[in-house]
Amino acid sequence: MVIAQLCRRGRMHSDGGASPWKRPRAGAVEQAIPIRGDVGTELELCNVSTWFGGVCALDDVSFTIRSGEVVGIIGPNGAGKSTLLDVISGRRRPQRGVVLHCDADVTRATALKRSRRGIGRTFQQLSLFTEMTVSEHVLLGYMGRRREPGRSLARRRSAWFEAMSAEATAEKGPGLSPTALMSSLGLQAVAGELASNLPVGTARLVDLARALAASPRLLLLDEPVSGLSVQEATAAAGFLRQVSEHHEIAVVVVEHDLDFARAATDRLVALNFGAVIADGRPAEVLALRAVQEAYFGGNQAQGDVADVEGRPNS
Ligand code: ADP
Ligand code: MG
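A: This is the predicted complex of the input protein with adenosine-5'-diphosphate.
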């Protein structure tokens, strides 16, 4: 709590997107930004910095994510997006700064501990098991957070069937049981396929289903729709929003596809050279000259971003 208070004293704008803003000079917002109450704060990054040798991958990054909020992280290649997810998930420790999950300091907690706290993720480099089927991947995610020591695999598998019947009687809305996820993401037709036989877009959906099956409370997605068609990406954006709202899952999604980012998120945080250059409502952030310049360079950074949006790079 003390750490949280110390962090908040120096943190930057975190009002959930009331207006876009440019990264101020250190200290400039200390009085300007009112401190929001703790209710519903899922994650807080306080002055996080990470270097790789002489390269600063994250430069004094601070922002807050509320429960059930979908926040997009955008920025050109090398901006620090994947490093940011690594720092939140525990794959990498920052050299400076603090990471708070539900007000607990997890800066030094391992990735396993954070996953047990309900922080799930997918990776930019797909890492499915080539010898496992689609349904086995989703089952793996489902079983991952439900620790049942001493149970055999066969007995643990029965939990899937329990989940299926629970789903049948559950309230309305998108479910997180393996079958519901596979159905919502259109994976039932390939349920028995080995992951190695899947096109990359379908494999991304399997990875998303696996991550959601673990019932995360904070889900980190690194380019989840790369390789999907426009229609598939649109459907995935709608599903992500629904599932986040219905289950109050906070989502941090790194994505180059700006149409997806606009459709799927409540708020965008733009990074450039590791620093936050904007944080606010998607349309407003995307219209900012600094954001357009970061993506497209000075010459094209004019007019509304609608003129230049799409897939700027890969
Ligand atoms: P993004 O995901 O936005 O493309 P990254 O987070 O992957 O960017 O990288 C941010 C910066 O950190 C880049 O300059 C990249 O070259 C560097 N970087 C990332 N990972 C490593 C690493 N393991 N070793 C050295 N440099 C790295
Ligand atoms: Mg990346």
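The radius of gyration is 20 Å. The chain has one domain: 2-307.
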